[in-house]
Every structure is written in C-alpha cells, then in structure tokens.
Predict the structure.
Amino acid sequence: MTPSVIAMRKNLARLMPVFLLLIPAGISGHVHAADMHEFNDYAGMVGDAPVGMTLGISGNKVAEGSHYYYRKYLKDITLTGTAGTDLRLAEPGGGLFVLHYVDNNSATVTAENSTGLAGTWSGNGHTLPVKLVAEGSGSYVPGHRYGDVTNKGDDQFEEPIKGFYDAAIAGRPADAARFVVFPLRVNTAPQRFLIVHNASEFQQKWNSIFSPAWLKALAAVSSHDLSVIQDKAMIGAGLAFFGENGLEVVNSIP
C-alpha cells in the first residue's frame, strides 16, 4: 500500500465521526425477519489472491449465508463447516479452509476480540497460506445485508455501486455519473461541503472531487459486501456512501 493511500485512510478514520454527522440520518422502515444472524467481515489474501469473507457462527457450526469471494470475480462461494479450536470451512468445489483466530493480546481469542484469521486453504492438490483482517460486523438476514437501506436483494442493490466503482477506477466520469443520485453531497473538510447538482457539473468537477489518493484508496477496497452506517452502505473507510439508488455522499479528502 502506498504512503498516499495510508495517509488517506488515516485522514478518513480521523474525520469519520464528523462526516457521519453530515449525512442525513433516515429512519429505516424496512422490516427485519426473525432469522437474522451476526456476521463478521474479513479481507485479505489466499495465496497471492485478494479475497473477502463473510462468516457467521451459530453454536459450533458455520451459519447459513457465510461465504467468501475473490476480488477479481466478486462471486460468492458458499462456506459450510464447524467452529471449534479451528474453523474448518468447506466450499462446494472441494476446497477447505483451516483457520484460527489471530490473537489480540487476549487470554481467550474469539471472533469478537480477534484481529482476524490465519491458516491455510487446500484444494486441487495445492495448499496456500491464508491471512485475513477483521473489517466489521453486522446482523442481517442472509441475502439482505442492506435491509436498513433498501428492500432490494444484495445483488440488485450492489449493481450501481459496482457500476460506479468500475467507472471511477477506469477514469470514466460520464459513466460514473450514471450511478450518482443528484444532488450529490461532497464533504471536503469537517463542517465544509459542496453540492454537485447534475451529471454535467459532476464531470466538470471530477478531478477536484476525486484526487489520485482517493482513487488509489478506492482501488484498494472491494465494491462487494459493504458495511452499513446510518442507513447508507459505506465503501472503504468512509470514502463514499450509497443509498437505495446509487452514490449519495463522497468524503473527498486531500
């Protein structure tokens, strides 16, 4: 990770409490079913391939809805298995994770106090090292992690997010504008923001909204399985926030 991306993440982390106050807080009217599960999100590497993982534990078993994905494909691979001293997570194609929680200087290491997971993945005659960092957690019905934002299923809700992500990384302002909800709020500093009213203005101000450091930070994260904060889906450490129909808030940090 480059110094500019690290600085961007530190700035976002420092200013996030203020920026969250600047996001209009909606009142969720979405109904939650009784069969919600607590899930933990992780990001890291299987061998040299970047992956994300969403994992729920129910008793000594892996909960329905648990999965992992390769960032190159963003396609969920179902995980089933058991949780004991080690986590043994099997995928339909025969691959097997054997993982343990990474110690967080605690006498007893659990999902709640660990900093991540480490171990191996084996399959197709190969064994690869696995290292995953804990990124967050949430409770939701499998397939509806965005229930506080929308009634849409996860795939449908993420379509404009992935569309914006791909267009932004590729440097295509006109395409990215298709996935923005105008007027767009751009937070530029604590208690300071600007409003972008339409697609034309968005394209004209593209370089001032999205700095090279911001775009590098975006490229370092996934557009899949996002955290939900104040009824918005958050990408990265607060880079941007998406509502039901697309991008609504950008934290544009120099």
User: Anything to note?
Assistant: The longest strand covers residues 126-140. Residues 3-21 form the longest helix (19 residues). Residues 1-10, 24-31 have pLDDT under 50 and may be disordered.
